[in-house]
Amino acid sequence: MTSVNIFQRYTIHHNLTSLVAKAGGYISWPFPPAETDYVHIPGERYDVLFNHMVYNKTWLRSKFPANTAYISLIREPLGHLKSCMRFYSLPQLLRITSTNPIKSFLRDPWRYKTLSEAYFRFCNVTWDGTRNHLAFDMGYPTEGAEDMEAAERYIKGLEYDFTLVLLLEHLDESFVLLRRLMCWEMQDVLYDTVPRNVGNYSYKSYTPTPRELANLRRWKAVDYLLYDTFNRSLWRKIAAQGPNFYQELYYYRELKRNVSFYCHGEQKRKPNRTLTVEATKWSPQFVVDAEYCRIMQTTAWNLTEEIRQKASRKEEGRWLIIRPVLNLRSIIKGQPTFKYKMEQIKYERKLQMERKHSKHVVKKRGPKRRHFGTTHI
Q1: How confident is the model at residue 364 (pLDDT cuts 50, 70, 90)?
Q2: Is the CB of residue 256 less than 8 Å from the CB of residue 296?
Q3: Rounded distance, CA 356 to CA 337, Å?
Q4: Do residues 155 and 225 touch, judged by C-beta distance below 8 A?
Q5: Mean pLDDT over residues 3-27, rounded?
Q6: Distant-in-sequence, close-in-space partners of 105: CB < 8 Å, separation ≥ 6
């Protein structure tokens, strides 16, 4: 939610042509891309895509120019597992009732294998939110969790494909490096310092024991291979930038705080006032005004809708893709999964009709009530 705002702002500021979903924020997850799910333009050539999707190299190269930069964001696997546990209600899926599901799970992750693998029947895809979720999003199948040779080959291919993979734990370093590699300006990579999409829960700060961490590394071996690979890659690229990289990083952090403080403070009190950021050796002068602050503070979902409207397309509700978290809740309840919201609505209406019909039949065909006399003694 923090990083996507940067790419959305760049899209708006430079009037880029975005490949955007017809409705909602998902292009293809966990299923392959479909031509019905995004807004088409003449020529089918696009500048940017920032919606949720599983990386699909063949399909993306059919839509974007050969010199396209591919960028993604991953995070340390333990933190990611904690976040997934809470966001996807995985303790319910795993039937863990303890107050610390991370500790319970890491004692023996293999014990939960038959429960943790969620099967999306409508697209014939298996996904495991506890295992190699990061690798899955980057296009590696759940079924390959035990095949480390295949995983190594695949991740080497990703190193070649991607211009940069950002790391959540080193977000500032990642954005400064992004600015340099993409030849962007400082104003393009600033972000709001007020936290977004941040939740607090009891096991968030839990530190696993060495044995639990060893279990996690074995269980999420592909995700750790992915993270370790791009962690090393990030620091190699930073080292190649020279010592002045850290001078820029210091300036970037200070500027980010000042601009965020201005947008949340003085700009709100005096909407017509602007903040002028003087030129430096890293960026030309620029002005922070009300519109800059508004876009920087707008949620990803709302900016997606603005960009979709700018393409002269209103959200088409019939193509609204169900969020994975909602499909997972259906799996937990033993209910079917669907790709589109309209399919789910039709299914629920059908169930309601069947229930009404069933009640009607029971009332109509049920046995007649027999009346008995009462004997007083």
Answers
A1: low
A2: no
A3: 23
A4: yes
A5: 92
A6: 85, 94, 96, 112, 130
Report phi then psi at 291, rounded to 5. Answer: -70, -40
Mean pLDDT of the 351-373 span: 63
Q: Are 72 and 79 in contact (CB under 8 A)?
A: no
Angle between helices 171-182 and 244-264 (to 10 degrees): 110
User: If we measure between CA atoms, which residue out of 157, 144, 129 comes closest to residue 29?
Assistant: 129
End-to-end Cα separation, the chain, in angstroms? 78
Q: How far apart are CA 217 and CA 49, in angstroms?
A: 32
Which tokens hold the place of 152?
A: 């190594």
Q: Model pTM?
A: 0.90
Q: Return the pLDDT at 240.
A: 97
- The beta strand positions in the chain, using DSSP E, are 26-28, 52-53, 71-74, 117-120, 125-128, 164-167, 275-277, 286-288
Task: Give percent of the chain above pLDDT 90.
Answer: 76
Tokens of 120: 């999306």
Separation CA 243–CA 343 (nearest Å): 56
Q: Are 76 and 180 in contact (CB under 8 A)?
A: no
How open is the CA angle 10-15-21, to the nearest 5 degrees? 80
Q: Which of 318, 7, 364 is nearest to 191 (CA)?
A: 7
DSSP track, 258-292: HHHHHHHTHHHHSTT--EEEPPBTTB--EEE-HHH
SS3 193: coil
Non-local (6+) Cβ contacts of 212 within 8 A are 103, 106, 107
How far from chain centre, in Å, is Cα 88? 12
Q: Averaged over 245-268, what is the pLDDT?
A: 94
Query: Range with the lowest mean pLDDT among 44-53, 74-83, 246-255, 352-361?
Result: 352-361
